Amino acid sequence: MFGFRLTHKRITADTRVSSSKRMEFGSVEIPPTTDTSPRKMSVDRRENHATAIEIRNAFRSFGGQAILRDLSLEVRKGETLVLIGESGCGKSVTTKLLAGLLEPTSGKVLWDGRPVRGRPENERRRDRLRLGYLFQGAALFDSMNVFENIAFGLRENTTLTEQQIREIVFERLREVGLTDNVSSKCPSDLSGGMKKRVGLARALAMSPDIVFYDEPTTGLDPVMSGVINDLIVQTQARRHVTSVVVTHDMNTVRRVADRVIMLVPLNCLTADESQIVFEGSCSEVFETDNPRVSQFVRGEIRTGSVSSRHESRECNAA
């Protein structure tokens, strides 16, 4: 399967100080990147075509409103796949299908080539532990402090001792650039950027093989957005995980993407048009002559599209 492991490696966060980024109390500096060119996949990763997760001919509706129609895509092992598209196109719904948090109305989701539907519940639960998920709003438990949030999955799903759990929690905090004293804080005491990093620490606690990031920079200032983007890249490099990122932020696309897929809302398509209007490398998405894609990438408004977009109904996870 995904190569699930409960053993953990000691990872030391890089704590070099950078004068160009001022961080919040309780955090350590993460060296910024000065490279703004589109990310290029390494030869080894480009040649690895093994599929980790796949959706085949998936349909998904909410209350009679179709969000996904005959959608097929694959996530390749070791890559960072970025899903882009305007609100309501089904990006977050797609990631929840891939992660097994939702089921398609019809169609298939496959993990390592095997359909998820029909697996025994204990097998699905075990395999789901191999996935980490950073939710759009971090989704921390308000009634728990930072330590308890990160330790939650370890306590519920492993037989590790409290001392082992404590070591893992503090390692994950340092890995995302936070100091140990943050562990006693409540989510309400944290800034937006710190919540995102605690959410990532929790997602990494079980040493997942695949990590999902749902709008990781939404609501953050440009400096903190850059920190989160760097963490996504560092996590992939250190852990060799497969990553799926949902974003509107083209700076995130430039920084983290190996491959990009753009979705379009169904109400902007004819009945025979594919919901995927672009699939290609990071550099290709910025160079494409497809007007629908290039206008989105540049933040331009399509002629006659404003009213139709405002009239489109959004589902909770669009």
Task: Give an overview of the whole structure.
- The longest helix is centred in the C-terminal third of the chain and has 18 residues.
- The relative contact order is 0.19.
- It is built from 11 helices and 10 strands.
- By secondary structure, the chain is an alpha/beta fold.
- Helix content is 33%, strand content 19%.
- It is globular and about 55 Å long.
Largest β sheet strand count, sense and barrel closure: 6 strands, mixed
- What do we call the CATH topology of the domain at 75-89 and 118-311? Rossmann fold
Amino-to-carboxy terminus distance: 29 Å
Helical content stands at 25-40%
CATH architecture of the domain at 75-89 and 118-311: 3-Layer(aba) Sandwich
Pattern of helices and strands: HEEEHEEHEHHHEHEHEEHHH
Choose one word for the global shape: globular
**Beta strands, count:** 10
Q: Strands of the biggest beta sheet: in what spatial order?
A: 6-7-8-3-9-10
What value does the average pLDDT take?
81
Rounded to an integer in angstroms, the radius of gyration calculated over CA atoms is 19 Å
Strand content: 15-25%
Give the class-level CATH name of the domain at 75-89 and 118-311: Alpha Beta
Uncertain stretches = 1-25, 27-36, 41-47, 303-318
CATH H-level homologous superfamily name of the domain at 75-89 and 118-311:
P-loop containing nucleotide triphosphate hydrolases
Secondary-structure class = alpha/beta
